[in-house]
Amino acid sequence: MERQQQIAESLRSKTWNEKLQWGLDTKNLGNSLYQQKKFTEAINAYQDCLLALDLGSTADQQEAAQRQLQIPAVLNLAACMLATKKYHRCKALCNVVLDLEPQSLKAIFRRALANFHLGELEEATQDLQRAYAMCGGRRPCETDEEFSATQQNLKEKLTTKSHSLLSTNSEKEQPTGVFCNAEDREKFLRKVNYYLHAISQQQTRYAKACQNMFSEGCLESSGGSGTQACKTGKLQLERLPNQVSSMFPLTLFKCSKCSFCARRAEKVE
Question: How many domains does the chain divide into?
Answer without folding.
Answer: 2
